[in-house]
Specification:
By secondary structure, the protein is an alpha/beta fold. It has helices spanning about 10-20, 45-50, 70-80, 95-100, 125-130, 165-195, and strands at about 1-5, 30-35, 55, 65, 85-90, 95, 105-110, 135-140, 150-160. Helices cover about 35% and strands about 25% of the residues.
């Protein structure tokens, strides 16, 4: 199963996927490419470290969505990598209908809350400020509704006495690093069985 990862930040979840592949915990999943909408994103440094194509793709002209010429560039470069699965790992842009149609049924996202609670930005902060006792992370299929697609799997993280926002965030991220590769491994087995 060929995987393309899209990310905007430091790439800790992408690194978890690549480490899982290296240690043969990604099933039949193989990362084919990493693309970022930010030229200075740490995720791009993972490519040379793991022997995977990594490249900045100009997302202009919009700051928070992938539309117009930027969307066309992303569709072209992702299509050229022939993905069976597109993984959004900290990709901070809203996908528009053109991209969603080009890779329909093949896009998943990792979100740092137990959806449908706390969609959108700063999900861990939202949960912290609300005072929840349990939060976590979700892998879901991507649809036009932001963080609203069908849930594939979740991992719960309990808020412990003495937690700070920072310690809670660290545990949610650690749960993400386990959940996302496990979901991909499972999906790769399902895809192989369907062939």
């Amino acid at each position: 199963m060929r995987i393309v990862i899209l990310g905007s930040g430091r790439g800790s979840n992408a690194e978890a996927i690549l480490r899982a592949e290296r240690s043969e915990r990604l099933g039949r999943g193989r990362v084919a490419a990493i693309f970022s909408d930010r030229a200075d994103a740490g995720i791009l440094e993972l490519g040379p470290r793991f022997g995977v194509l990594s490249k900045f793709v100009d997302p202009s002209p919009f700051r928070t969505k992938l539309d117009g010429e930027g969307e066309a560039r992303f569709i072209a470069i992702v299509s050229a990598a022939r993905p069976d699965l597109v993984v959004l790992a900290g990709f901070m842009r809203v996908l528009k209908p053109g991209f969603l149609k080009a890779f329909a049924g093949r896009i998943i996202n990792l979100h740092p809350s137990l959806l449908p609670s706390f969609p959108g930005l700063d999900a861990i902060g939202q949960a912290w400020r609300r005072g929840v006792k349990v939060t976590g992370c979700t892998v879901h299929r991507v649809t036009a509704e932001v963080d609203g697609g069908p849930i594939i799997d979740q991992a719960a993280v309990h808020v412990e006495p003495g937690d700070t926002l920072e310690t809670l965030a660290a545990r949610v991220h650690a749960a993400e690093h386990v959940l996302l590769p496990a979901v991909i491994a499972r999906m790769s087995g399902e895809e192989a069985a369907g062939r």
